[in-house]
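Lecture notes, unit on protein representations.

Consider one protein chain, 67 amino acids long.
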Amino acid sequence: MADSPPRASIAEAARTVLWAFFGVRKRVAHERAATRITPLQVAAIALVLVLLFIFTLITIVRFVVGQ
């Protein structure tokens, strides 16, 4: 049985998800990350980043409106 590649760190997985949000990835980076990042890592990091994005938008709107 072949050795599986080491799992990506949280920072590597977060970088991959952020680039996916932006919509730009190099093919080599995609192929390298696809073997190291688990679906659970992607889902968890994406959820955290979406919640952070929503919280940031709500905070900016409240600041601008003055509440």
